[in-house]
Amino acid sequence: MTQAPDPAASPEDQTDPLVLVPDSGDTGQPPVHGGRATGELVHRPDADDAFPQQWTRLAEHRYLVVADWPAAHRFFAPLPGGVQDPLLVAETMRQTAMMLAHAEYGVPAAHHFVMWDMEYALATAGFGLSDASGRVDVVVQCSEVQMRARSLAGMRVRLTFQRGGRLLATSTGSLSCTSERAYRRLRGDRLDAAGDPVPLLDGVPPERVGRRDPRDVVLAPSEEGAGWRLRLDTAHPTLFARANDHVPGMVLLEAARQAAVALSPEGRFLPASLAIAFHRYAELDEPCLVRARRETSPEGDVIVHVEGLQGDEAVFTATLGDTPEVAR
């Protein structure tokens, strides 16, 4: 799933009319009561990076997804103190939305996904590995479902994450789907350059951005003063699991998180809440400047605002929260 393109560009063919499906309406798809997730459905070729395991249709546009959150992962690693990585919420939502789009709403394998926005919030002060690893039950409600020629054109999803009957987190996001032909028309020569080498910048020290492995650092020192340059390692097995013609949205999420950590005293920042909007594609061959500012409310809540800029245009804006009640 990618970040959103320029909204002025039409992301889909206009030969078939859009049909807005009511939340209780018929999608036109054959009845499917559930199934098992595959790497193709969640767009993750490595099984270690695939978190949804199976799904069951509960009602029209409502599903139960069983996910498996790792107690250890090469990228979504536990944070200091044995805290589970909250970005697993965002990544599980991303994979779940694509899985259901393919399996329940008829999206062909060759179509491309566009993520416009996503947000999540932890619902528990205890997000340690004992509470947030292993089997996680995810209830998914799809709304604003738009169909074109019996295939999904776009929808909004709301996910509720539970384990052992305990609420862990909630998340929402909106996405749209584009055909391979429409995507090629939209991206043009940039699609042909997918997989081309990208210069690897020297990253900031990993401990400054909450990382142990230098390969996981996505920020580099900026030559323009405040902020950082986006650092792209297209050989990274999780962030760049396959060739891309643009910067994956998960890289931008991680850049927002690392910027928030870099501004925090002693690097202590748990992204207990995150909201991000994608405004246009982040291009691989253009410098991307990441800027952030931190503020603290009278109640002690910490908020960090992050933006990514290419040229004078924002490619994403994000707000991350670290509240004492959840994070400590």
UniProtKB/TrEMBL annotation:
Pfam families in the cross-refs: AfsA
The UniProt GO MF terms for this protein read: transferase activity
Which organism was this protein described from? Streptomyces griseoluteus
Q: Which domain of life is it from?
A: Bacteria
Q: Domain A-factor biosynthesis hotdog, which positions?
A: 41-176, 209-297
- Check the record and name the NCBIfam families matching this protein: ScbA_BarX_GamBu
SUPFAM superfamilies annotated for this entry? Answer: Thioesterase/thiol ester dehydrase-isomerase
Question: InterPro entries of this UniProt entry?
Answer: AfsA-like (IPR047757), AfsA_hotdog_dom (IPR005509), HotDog_dom_sf (IPR029069)
Question: What's the protein name?
Answer: ScbA protein
Question: Region Disordered: what ranges?
Answer: 1-40
